[in-house]
User: What shape does this take?
Amino acid sequence: MAGFAFVNFFLLYLAIILLFSTIISLPSFHLGLNLEDLKVTRKLEKNKVFKDDFVHVKVIIENLGKNKFEFIEVRDYYNPTLFRLVLGENHILTRIDPKETIKFSYILQPRVRGEYPFGPLSVVVKDRLGFNSEERIVPKSVTKILIYPPYEDIKRIEILGSKRSLSLNYGVQRSKMKGLGAEFYGMRKYAFGDQFRLIDWKASARHQKLIVKEFESERDITVLIMVDCGESMAGGSIENTKFEYAIRATMLLTKISLTRRDSVGVFLFSDKKNYHFKEPNSGSDHFYRVLDFVAKVKPSGKSKLEEAMDFINQRFQKRSLVFLITDLEQTSDDIIKGIKKIVMWKHSLVVISPFSPWFEIHEVDLSPSDKALAEAISEEMMEQVLKIRHSARTLGVPIISVGPDDMMSQILAQYLEAKKKGKAY
Amino acid sequence: MVRWYLTTLKVANILVFFWILAIFNTIFDQSLIDFAAVINVITSLKNIVSYLIFGLLYLVAIGLSMMVIFLFLWHVYFDPSFMRNFLDNLFKGLLNSWFAFPEGPIESLGQIPSRLLNQIELITDDIYNVSFQILFLLLIINFIRSTLQTNPKYNFWVVGCLVGMIIIPLFFEGLINMLDLFNISIEYLDDLPNPLFPSILESPVNDFISFILSSISQLALALYIYLDLSFQINYINLISMPSLERSERLESQLEVLNKEALEITTNIDQIKEESKKKKEELGIEKEVKISKFLGKKEQKFSYVKEMILKKKLEEEEKKLISAAHDTRRLGSYIERLFIEDSEARDTLTATSSAPRPSKLIVSTLTSFLIRVIALIFIGFIILHTSWLIISVLNLPEAISGSVAMFSPEIILVVMLPIILLFPLSAQIISYVKKRALISQLKEEREIKEIEATVGDYLVSTEQQKSEIVEEEGEVSIT
Assistant: This one.
C-alpha cells in the first residue's frame, strides 16, 4: 500500500503541503514570541467591597515591544461561587500591534463574605492559523479582595434616620420605660409617685390636669457582642448561613450602638485556636474597624463556650451588656457553665439563638421523607432549647430563639429594652 | 468594514472551491460512474430488510404455534397438522403477496439466507459506484455548511471527500497491480472502472513553470488555498466578531437595565401584593415566630409544614424582590461609574480591542502569500530530489548515479531534514531567548540588590553624620 502512495505525486505533493503548512510558521512564531514585552495588569475599582455591592475590574494589555501578537487570549480568572458576573466578560480574544494598548473590563457582584484571592491572569498567544500556541500565567496577578457583610441593613438606617427606620424596617417599637435621662420622650397624666420636677405646668394648665414629661434613659453603656463561629454556625445556604446572619446582626447592632454613643466590642469564638477579640471602643470610625475585623472570619472548629468565656473574662471585666449569638448546638452543660461564667462578672447577658432548622431548610422542594426528617430534627432541637432555656432562666438570662425573618428585629429590640431598663450601667 | 472584509474572503473561498471542482473535472471521468447504482443499492437494501422482517415474523409464528401445540396436544379434538397448514397458508399465501420479493414468493424459510446473500452480492457490485456519489454528496453538504458557519472542520470534510474520491480508485488500482505480481486475478476487481485520467499518475516535469501549471500541482495547491482561507476567515471571525457582538450586547443590556430600573418600584409593589394574596389564600401567618413554635407543642407538626410552605412562597418572592433590588442598584451603580470613569463604557464593550481592518487586510495577504510561495518552493525541491542532488548539491557520481536515486523513497532523504529543520530552529530560538531573559532578570535583580544596599548605606551615613553634629554641638556648648 505504501508503494502506490509514492508513485502518486498528487497525494505526495498534497501531503507535503499539508504537513509543512503546520510547521512552517514555527520559527517565526517563536521569534516573535516576546511575552516579556506584553504587560498585562488588573485594576480593581476597590479592594474592599460590600457583599451587595458591585466591583468594576479593568484589565490593561500593553505591547511594549516591536513585534505584533497576531492572536492573544487574555482571561482573568475568578471563582464563580464567590462572584457573579453581572456585566461584560472576563476574557478577550484579539490581536495587538506594537506599542498598542488594549483595555477591557467587567463588573462582578460578590456573593459571599470573606477575604478571597482574585485571579490569576492568563495569556495565551497563538499564531494566525492556531497551529502553535504558548500559555503563560502573569506573575503576581493574584490580588486579595475583602468582601464585607452586606450594607443593606445599615443603609436603611442611614437613609431614614435610626429611630424611624427601626420602627419601619425592624418593627422595633419604642417602649415607654420610665427612666431618668436627657432625651425627651413624651407626656402623660400624672401618677402618684412621679417627681414634681417632671410636671409640665403649661401642658397641665391647658388640659386642666397634671401632666408630666417622660424621658428616655440615655446613659452610655458598653456592649459586647459574642458570636459563636463554630462549624455548626455554617449551616444554611452558602450565601445565608447562620453565621452570616449573626454577622449582619452584629454590624447592625454595632451601628445602632455607636450612633447612641455606646462602646462596642466584638468577640468571635469557637475552639482555642479561633478566638478573635476586638476591644470595645466608640466613635464612627470604630464601625469600620469592626467591619474589617468581622469580614475575614469564617466558621471553623468545635465551639466550647466555657473555655471561650474563660478567655474573655481574663481580658475584659468591665460590666457590659453582652449579646451572645450561638446556635446552642453544644452540650447543655457546657452552655450553662459558659453562661454562668459571664453572669459571674455582673454582665447583663442576652442569648440570641438562631434556630437551626429554620436556617437550614433552604431546599424547599423536600420529599415527604425529608419533610418528616425536618420535623423530627426540629422537635429534637426544640427540646434542647427548652431545656437550656429553663436552666438559664434560673440565672436570669433570657434565651431568645430567632429565625431568619426576625433575627434583626429581635436583637435590636433586646438592645433598646436593655437601654430603657438601664441594664449594664 | 471588518464584516465586508470577512464577506469578501468567504466569496473568495467559494470561488476557490469552484476552481477546485473545475480542476477535478479534468482528472475525473464522470461518465464511468453509474448514477443508477444508488437506486440499485437502495432497492437491494429494501429487499434485505423485507427478507429479514418476513423471516422474523415466520420464526415468531412458528414459535407461537409450537407453544399452542404443546399446550393443547392432550386435547382429543386437537389436530397439530392444522397449525402447520394454517401457517403455510398464512405466510405463503397471504403475506408473500404483501412483500414484493424480486425472486418471487418464498416457499420455505430455508430460501431466505441464500436470497439475502444474492442481495448482498448485488450491493457489493454497486458499492464502488455508490461510494463516489456519497462522497460527492457529503462534499456539497459540507461546502454549504462551511459557507454558512465559519468552522474549518467543514472545510476539512470537503477536502477529505474530494481526496477520498481520488484515493478509492487509486487504492483498487494499486491492489490489482500488487496482486498481478503474484499472478492473482480477481474478476470483481478487474471489472471495476477507474474514473481517474492517466494524468493523475504522471510525475511532474522537471521544469518549474510546467510543474506549477500541471493539473495535479494546481489541484493540491487549490486544496491548500481553500483550507488556508478557511483558517484565515476563522481567525478574523474570532478576533473581530466578539468585540462587535460584545458592544451590541452591552448596549442592549444597558438599555434594558435603564428601562427596568425605572419600573422597579411598581414591580416590587406588585410582587409583594401577589405574595401577600397567596399567603392569605393559604392561611399562612405573616411572620413565623419561633416563640410560637416553641410554645404550641401540640401543633408543632402542622407548624413545621406551614413553615416549609411559607419558605417556599417566600423563596420565590425573595428571588424576585432581590432581582428587582439588584437591578435598581446596578442601574444607579452603572450611572455613577460612567460619570466617574470616562472610559468605562469603552472598556466594558472592549472597543479598543477591535482590530483595524487595514492592518488585518495587509497582514492576511502578506502571511498568505509568504506561506503559499514557500510551500510551492519546498514542494518542488522535495519532489525533485534528483535535481537538487545533481544540479544544486553537485554530489559525486557514486551517489547521483546510484539505484537509490531512481526509487521513490529518495524523497525521504531530502524531506526528513527539511521537516526537522523547522521545529529544531524553533527550539533553538526559544532556548536562546530564554537564556537571554534569565540573564537579563539576573542583572536586574543584582542592580536592585545593589540599589538596596546603597540605600541602606546612605541612611546609615546620614545617621552617623547627625550624631557627629550633635556631639560637636554638645562640645561647642560645653
Q: What stands out?
A: Chain A touches chain B through 79 residues (CB under 8 Å).
